[in-house]
Write a structure and sequence with these properties.
Blueprint: H1 5-8, H2 21-24, H3 35-48, H4 55-59, H5 69-72, E1 103-104, E2 116-118, E3 136-137, E4 151-156, E5 162-165, H6 166-170, E6 175-182, H7 199-203, E7 206-215, H8 216-222, E8 232-237, E9 244-248, H9 249-253, E10 258-263, E11 266-267, E12 277-279, E13 292-298, H10 305-308, E14 313-314, E15 320-321, E16 330-335, E17 346-355, E18 361-367, E19 375-376, E20 378-379, E21 389-397, E22 402-410, H11 419-426, E23 439-442, E24 448-451
Parallel strand pairs: 4-13
Antiparallel strand pairs: 1-2, 2-3, 4-5, 6-7, 7-10, 8-9, 8-13, 10-11, 10-12, 14-15, 16-17, 17-21, 18-19, 18-22, 20-21, 22-23, 23-24
Length: 454
């Protein structure tokens, strides 16, 4: 990656860029040893301690004589007939993975039904969130809409108001793209120094899927939308809350906004908006209206209930920032993270996720000493725009306390802020759009806890 600050200066800066060029240049140099030597030596150091009864040896006992029975003796599943294909017609995870599940909110807005569930980021691999583990946020509970009766309407500043059935929409040319979706309130509980225990609760209102649908601009052009005067669009859902959100037309004109019916290769799940939802890449999840029934073209924002009261930012001077919908560059280490335990010192791979609502992630730096020194992590390819990016860094834990952080930078030059930098601008009374650097404390016992550094 290009580390020339002059090259970075050519990139567009997003608002509230909290680090100057000197801060961006702070990167801990890679060691002289190759990666394979690093891993080999770190493992060797861990194994060398097994004679003394280390935790690693206790966790992986190998009989002194006769060898490991799990290798020498065939287990039942290797000597019996397996089961037939799934009789219910839809596969399920292994029973040994039953603990990997969405979990409800411990303290956010509640109704008669649970309104929020968090994705288990600590248990996921790659960038795609399985549909059954995708986070949920409902304003009136989820519904299972009959697709044969569902209609999608276009009205407002258009030449020809139109109504589509699902069959008609699915006959049109479609695209499939990978994008992250993040609730504007993700990490919101931590604004007030509330150290929730795990990454599932601190950052779990985040998921990433392959979405399939028709570009909204195609449908607006079919209806003859006035794109010169009609610079805003109202999207409305068909659930009990009739969720409505204003979408700026410039986002739609880019071709990124989709009227989607597919997710991860299948139809949307009911809890994710079946049979139709809006996909607005890079924008907070509340604007990805589920059970989409109507869009209306207009010449100004609508200032609906959830745009005038919720999903707005309370600033230190008492003013509210409205329509701050872009999800700024952010990252989090998922392994090791809160609630996990390192069994012994030695080699570990620090893993995590990074994302930006303004485009591609350009770089992620990782620190194990609370931000005093940084080392550039590897980014898993392909790095896609407005999509989760997986990063990793080799680390040899010496058994002493460590403060693990990640700091992402996107292609605009925006750098993820510390809590102090964020609060200097935003104050302490916010709920939404917390993208501060997350810190995990690894204790000498190996237990990992959530802490906040100023």
């Amino acid at each position: 990656m290009n580390s020339d600050p002059n090259q970075r200066g050519r990139l567009r800066k997003a608002p509230e860029n909290f680090l100057d060029q000197a801060g961006i240049r702070t990167v801990f140099a890679e060691g002289k040893r190759g990666r394979r030597d690093f891993i080999r030596n770190a493992f060797a150091a861990a194994v060398a301690g097994t004679a003394g009864g280390s935790a690693l040896a206790q966790a992986n006992p190998v009989p002194a004589e006769g060898g490991d029975p799990n290798i020498l003796t065939l287990p039942p599943w290797s000597s019996t007939l397996g089961k037939a294909v799934a009789t219910d017609g839809y596969g399920l995870p292994s029973k040994y993975e039953a603990n990997v599940q969405r979990r409800p909110s411990p303290g956010l807005t509640q109704t008669t039904q649970a309104s929020v569930s968090f994705a288990p980021l600590q248990s996921l691999f790659g960038i795609v969130t399985p549909s059954g583990l995708h986070f949920e946020r409902h304003h009136q509970g989820w519904v299972d809409v009959d697709p044969s009766k569902h209609r999608f309407m276009i009205n407002g500043m258009v030449k020809t108001p139109m109504v589509f059935t699902m069959d008609e929409l699915m006959r049109l040319p479609t695209v499939s793209r990978f994008h992250f979706i993040e609730c504007g309130a993700n990490s919101g509980m931590q604004w007030g120094n509330v150290a929730v225990p795990t990454v599932q609760y601190s950052h779990g209102m985040l998921s990433c899927s392959e979405f399939t649908g028709v570009p909204l601009i195609t449908l607006l052009q079919m209806a003859g939308a006035d794109l010169k005067k009609g610079r805003f669009l109202l999207a409305e859902g068909a659930d009990g809350s009739s969720m409505t959100r204003t979408i700026p037309m410039e986002l739609i004109e880019s071709g990124e906004v989709l009227v989607a019916f597919g997710q991860n290769g299948e139809m949307l799940r009911p809890e994710n908006g079946y049979p139709l939802r809006l996909v607005v890449p890079g924008v907070q999840g509340v604007s990805w209206v589920k059970y989409l029934r109507r869009v209306e073209v207009g010449d100004k924002p609508w200032a609906t209930k959830d745009e005038a009261v919720h999903y707005i930012d309370l600033m230190p001077d008492g003013q509210h920032r409205q329509y701050t919908s872009i999800q700024e560059c952010k990252s989090v280490v998922t392994t090791p993270s809160g609630g996990q335990v390192l069994l012994d010192k030695g080699f570990y791979s620090i893993n995590g996720l990074a994302w930006s609502g303004r485009g591609k992630v350009k770089r992620v730096d990782v620190s194990v000493d609370g931000g005093h020194n940084w080392k550039t992590a590897r980014l898993q390819e392909p790095v896609q725009s407005k999509c989760l990016t997986r990063f990793s860094l080799d680390w040899a834990w010496d058994g002493k306390p460590a403060l693990i952080q990640s700091r992402a930078m996107d292609e605009t030059g925006y750098v993820q802020p510390t809590y102090k930098q964020l609060r200097d601008v935003r104050g302490t009374r916010s709920i939404y759009h917390n993208n501060a650097i997350q810190t995990w404390l690894v204790q000498e016992s190996g237990e990992v806890k959530n802490v906040q550094l100023g």
